[in-house]
Amino acid sequence: MFLHVCFIQIYSVQQLRHRLQTSGLYIANTKPGGFSLEVANNDSNQVIVGLRIHLGTQDIIRVPSTIEILGRSVAIKMSGYVPQNMLHQ
Length: 89
Fold this sequence. Notes:
Layout lengths: L1 E2 L1 H4 L4 H9 L15 E2 L27 E4 L2 E4 L8 H4 L2
Antiparallel strand pairs: 1-2, 3-4
């Protein structure tokens, strides 16, 4: 797994792995320039079949306008409303 240097300044590698592998935990980007995340699967007995990205649950202002996955740019459209129960998770 490759992580942008901004995450290494906030979390240790072990903390990042734990946060990415644990339901309910997340990593948050604190830099306005965004970040890169590259996931590699070295286990030939397992296949990555999906990717889940939660956006706007901490700060809707920091939601990117696009996300690039496998070379494809996906436009992100968010409404201005964030449910109250999502603001303090």
